[in-house]
Amino acid sequence: MTVPSSPPSRLDLGVGWIGLKHGFLLKGRSTKKGRVSKKSPESQKSGDNMEKQSTSNANNVFHPQNLNEEVNDSSSRASINIILNHDFSGGLHLWHPNCCDAFVISEESGNSEGIPAKLSGRYAVVTNRSECWQGLEQDITNQVSMGSTYTVCAWVAVSGAHHSISDVLATLKLEYQDSAVSYLFIGRISATRERWEKVEGTFSLSTMPDRVLFYLEGPSPGVDLLIRSVMVSCSSSAEYDGRSTGSICDEDENIVLNPKFDDGLQNWSGRGCKIVLHDSMADGKVLPMSGKFFASTADRTQNWNGIQQEITGRVKRKIAYEVAAVVRIYGNNVTSSDLRATLWVQAADLREQYIGIASVQATDKDWVQLKGKFLLNGSPSRAVIYLEGPSPGTDILLNNLVVKHAAKVPPSSPPVIKDATFGVNIIANSNLSDGTNGWFPLGNCTLSIGNGSPHILPPMARDSLRHEPLSGRYILVTKRTQTWMGPAQMITDKLKLYLTYQVSAWVRIGTGATRPQNINVALGVDSQWVNGGQVEINDDRWHEIGGSFRIEKQPAKLKSETDKIRKRNVILKFSTSDSTTLLGTNVKIRQMQNSFPFGSCVSRSNIDNEDFVDFFSKNFNWAVFGNELKWYWTEAQQGNLNYKDADELLNFCVSHNIQVRGHCIFWEVESAVQTWIRTLNKNDLMSAVQNRLSSLLTRYKGKFKHYDVNNEMLHGSFYQDHLGKDIRANMFKNANQLDPSAILFVNDYHIEDGSDSQSSPEKYIEHILDLQEQGAPVGGIGIQGHIDSPVGPIVCSALDKLGILGLPIWFTELDVSSNNEYVRADDLEVMLREAFAHPAVDGVMLWGFWELFMSRDNAHLVNAEGDINVAGKRYLALKQEWLTRTHGHIDEQGQFEFRGFHGSYEVEVVTLSKKVTKTFIVDEGLEPVAIALKRETDKIRKRNVILKFSTSDSTTLLGTNVKIRQVQNSFPFGSCVSRSNIDNEDFVDFFSKNFNWAVFGNELKWYWTEAQQGNLNYKDADELLNFCVSHNIQVRGHCIFWEVESAVQTWIRTLNNNDLMSAVQNRLSGLLTRYKGKFKHYDVNNEMLHGSFYQDHLGKDIRVNMFKIANQLDPSAILFVNDYHIEDGCDSRSSPEKYIDHILDLQERGAPVGGIGIQGHIDSPVGPIVCSALDKLGILGLPIWFTELDVSSDNEYVRADDLEVMLREAFAHPAVDGVMLWGFWELFMSRDNAHLVNAEGDINVAGKRYLDLKQEWLTRAHGHIDEQGQFEFRGFHGSYEVEVVAHSKKVTKTFIVDEGLEPVAIAINL
């Protein structure tokens, strides 16, 4: 980069700040690579001569304590500012005006004459400048080090100019003892008169000068330079947060323009109303809280009317913003109202989203602060922030609004808990052996001692308390006049911060109660009450009450329970095709994924954030939608159905092989029911309920594994109140009829923690049994799990009780909240261990994990910008703990045994000659599972060969050296190719060397050959076919028809049935007559499991007739079915079983189906799953081809591994006859991150893996001719070259090894 020798001459003016980024690296001391100074010769001799005594403002006295505060504050930041007194809070201390004057303007003193009022606050003024290079400098010699990169940001302005623009520069002066002074340019800004702007840049020192001065300069002589603050931080230090985006100035930058209305209403507007500027209201009773002005609304007629500003272009995706506004309300006799800050976002596709940022109870008496945070996942085309909420007629007042990059919350420190004792009761005189000593009555009630309570500990406390049998005494409380009155004890000095305490007691009520009574254990903490447990009692028996308010102890029994129910004994049985001994062979076992469902809530906007997607897809295997499937989302207004968000989320989950729960069909709590439903009469409500069931479950039949049918029936009764008790059971019955494959769940909260008498385990059991007795097919129990201070035994006790029903239990919405990340991590671990160790629990869903996208604060595992916190790391550590790793050696029985968690595994076997990797799955089960691991490749892709040599002169060949080299494996490995590809000679070279089959991407499809009716275009297909023939490459024909309507061209969709039938016949005749005998295969009607256009318009027989007519027109071609997601188990429409039924149906009606096409667009393939699908399809006896294989991952190594899994499974399976890749060259593939060769011809890791496998599947052998004149070997099918060296001459011959089970004898005459 060329550094200008001097600042360019510009027209200079007034005041302004503009952002500029620049960078440099100092390579040496020579001034040729630095800035040529315009300073006087005297000033270049000595740095001291450059300094002139400043003219200081007498009001700005330097206070050392201010500087100390500044330094301390800076040192606490992730990126430390090396500029001292950076904001001039200490006057000009440590700053030096360079041959000019300077003074500081304080907030109290106000601006000097000629400086606009909008440049408020504290800042330095550099004046009496007679040269461009004169400015303000600070010596940073002792603050910088060689090799580090420093980031610079300064807020500057100019004043006193008469032109429109003036340059401000950031510069380094570098002084060396043995050479001239050099000047280094950092950054420049063209400043205007209107506002503060920032000059930015970076620098790095590769050698260390004797003195380093940082200074700001640049405006023309006579123009004053204004400096508000300067930051220089080391961006390459260990303390620097490398993930941070933006500059070091960003943390102070408000993206709201004119935030205090100093420029009137500029940049502001009314949202559906008017706005007005004020300096006071109500005869001076309403004044600004800060500054001089505030704005108000006028003529509000809707709740959403308010004050707004567009922040498009200034708000960035994946950045957490904090919002602070000073607000109040006025008028309409409203004294208090909810006031909200909302962000309206519009995407490029015009999708709208409303993001609630914060709310506050505003009053007409005082200004209040509204604070919140938000983060955008996607890139908006428009973004508007606005205030709304009060009822129409009530005005919103706004004094100022700040939206800036949120400061990162410093990480929590582990709680320090000294002398903690576990299993010890902290209640004094708990067995009442000393009467009521230690106890006191809370309120005006009376305590006395009675006898006859249970002598055993409550069940929930037995595993956690070390305690003698109870005494049988109890406290009797009488003369109670308030619900809160009862026995109490002071325990302040016995509690330790961050420990969780378990509460357990026996309680009962006296006679005379006419209805159920709630009994609570409560803790008075300062002025707040904390719930320690609750139970509802309606008889005079003793009842257990239990709860908690914090613990860390992990029950010792959990690990053994976990191993018992989540692991299985495994016997791997190894064998080889050639009977080679494997005794002592090294084996390494690595579990890739635990099959236990760990899932999370996800929302539509989340999947626009690639960091969220990366964490989610790597660490969860189930999903549930936050709102997008709820009725109030899919039909907010009657009749206006919106499934777009749910569809996109479902497609995302399918593409990432993630199972999905359906939450929820209905929600029984009235506040969660949309307004239009609440206003319906009984008949219309019943119709709406039936329509909801039919619409949702028909649309998504087979796609959601679970449904929460009617959410929170223990806490709400809207539908039951309006439609009768039977409606709940009928919802389950109708849902089961519409989608029999889905498991139907009840779902409710506070089941597991003992803190809510409405939802105890006992009441939940009664509720479920009642539904079942009415015929409701309840298939699962949902425990939401919004819990604080969980205690393992209490959770376990609830699970034990619910477990007697024999239904699978899922934690459906688990979150734990604590502002201390370590405590949050401990609580999360308690819950996950209890769930994973309990045999009745079948899955755990977190109710989110990403900050700002959770329903509860301080419950996240990952902060808004992607940093994993302590709780997140704990979750990942548990996931790792629950993966099995082991190693050892194969025993004399050819076996290796271990005990491992259920899930998918990879085993690596290393012999002396090769390393073999196989995958397998350990399913649930009590008995040991035996898994046979043998590589079928050698068995089915090789053949024994006997080469029989002879000579014309009967010369003996005994001992003659033989070298065998396979030239090509005959197994079909092909690729998709397009017409434009063959114009690229690099593409042609790779393609022709590494593939022996081809398929055209689009050029044979009907929408390509006849885009407009009657205008046939076979030119591209002809040229591609000629290319393949010239390179001896076989070709598949893809495809004659495509059954999916979106792939059918418009003119065909508009035909009537008769004309459509004629068009179909013409297509068959035109294509198959033209290319008769030239295409080895045809995909006759593509994707019949996923589309039905031709069948819908021409009847069911059309599919069979397409096959019959194609066979008549070209009997030599093998006719294929072809579809996707057959092999991966992620699409219920196209399971192997459904594909088999489909093929058998075609064959039974006479279709000559000759081959099975599996497209193979797959992610994260698991070998055993693929193999299982191939085994099932193999029973049909038809050749199977992977017709469009691609695997996608932005990590090339992962892509290579996935591709290897697929190719090895295909090559090792006897039913598979060929593999076609759906392209290999970047930018010419239908899926991103699936290529093997980049756009400019470089082979990536996946491409090299493909070539390595091709090499592995070529046979090399050598040896000597035996006494029978023969040489034997076992080799892959294909073409070979044999080289024989005898009697001083070398002879080379070629031969072919065809498929076959018997050894093949090949005569070679030398």
TrEMBL record:
InterPro entries: CenC_carb-bd, Galactose-bd-like_sf, GH, GH10, GH10_AS, GH10_dom. Residues 30-67 are annotated as: Disordered. One of its GO terms (molecular function) is endo-1,4-beta-xylanase activity. Residues 43-67 have a biased composition (Polar residues). SUPFAM superfamilies: (Trans)glycosidases, Galactose-binding domain-like. It holds the Pfam family CBM_4_9. The active site is at E813, E1188. PROSITE patterns: GH10_1, GH10_2. The keyword Amino-acid biosynthesis does not apply. One of its GO terms (biological process) is xylan catabolic process. Keywords: Carbohydrate metabolism, Glycosidase, Hydrolase, Polysaccharide degradation, Repeat, Xylan degradation. Residues 583-881, 958-1253 form the GH10 domain. Belongs to the glycosyl hydrolase 10 (cellulase F) family. This is GH10 domain-containing protein. It comes from Fraxinus pennsylvanica.
